[in-house]
Amino acid sequence: MSGVGASAGDSSMRPGVAILGSTGSIGTTALRVLARQRDRFRVVALTAHANAALLAEQEAAWSPAFVGLVTGTGGRDAWARGTDALVEAATRDDVDVVINAVVGAAGLDATLASLEAGKRVALANKESLVVAGELVAEAAARGGGEIVPVDSEHSAILQCLGDHAPSDVRRLVITASGGPFRTWDAARLAGATVADALNHPTWSMGKKITVDSATLANKALEVIEAHFLFGVPYDRIEVVVHPQSIVHSMVEFIDGSVVAQLGVPSMELPVLYALTHPERVVDSGVPRFDPVQASPLTFEPVRHDAFPALGFGIAAGRAGGAAPAVFNAANETAVALFLEGRMTFGQIATRIGEALDALGGMVGGDRIALLAADAAARTFVRERA
Ligand code: NDP
Ligand code: MG
Fold it and tell me: What pLDDT is recorded for position 11?
């Protein structure tokens, strides 16, 4: 569905947008971007998990045709309720683009259903691809839908790749800020608190991904995401630490040329680009880049010994089958327990490693098998809190 944003000026043709997770960090960023693109897009559906108050404010501002609240009370009687609300919103006839900004494996069914229904999915919910990359690809092939990544690194890679085939690519280089603990030694890391982990140096995001950025589990999710999005094997995907978060990622081509995409650390551009790809539209609200102000740009290797979650996740990706689903579910559960004060920072990676040892060999394949692996990993980690 190239050029979904092509119809500026003709309001009857404006593509309809559903935002799943509209009350979150990416969801609210998306609404900020869409507020400047009202002549190009219509917001037709919004969903949240439990934040009825913010959802009601958004409804008042946007008058979408559909509003869904998964759990919790409040809001209007007309709102859809329950987990089905996500799929319902995503598959509506008046929806052309689904911004999946739900956090966690809870976003999977909506990604699958959107693609089956032939929609463009502006995908922030990387967990969908990690849990079920093959199923997501099959759903897109069957239904004619397409994924355009919102994740800044993958948006960068998409922009660097242009029309090149995977066979032209020697290497994807995914940048990582290194998170708040980039320079911390092992002893200091052992005592890292929730407040420390939530103190991200360059990005302002939801709590789960902020903790993932501190453990570097987020980079493992992103390596797996890149593998499925771009069809590049794991041994040609590398991670480099870049503390300024200006170079969002790079592609090295077979002739040795390296193409990078740069910009200030803001999700507004990746969200906008996911809506308009392959076109570019004017948006005076996206923060401008000043190379002098951004300098110096530095790069350093990942400290794998200090951040073992990254290696666990990449190994899970390479192993395939249910292993990535186990990695993701163990991580989601451990992060939730850490945020509740029931697990130390170091235990997040330890429990992920243990869960993969115990359950990583579970069979993958269909959705039922992957969800069984997901559930088993959640139970495994919860029992060891
Ligand atoms: P937030 O926690 O800020 O927002 C999550 C959104 O999803 C909220 O609207 C929340 O509703 C809703 N939600 C949470 N749980 C469920 C559920 N079980 N079912 C349905 N809806 C649910 O997360 P972020 O916006 O930070 O992240 C969203 C996704 O985007 C993640 O996959 C993340 O990895 C990815 N991403 C985020 C980036 C960022 O800058 N934030 C950058 C790159 C990727 P409620 O508010 O009611 O709880
Ligand atoms: Mg990212």
Answer: 54
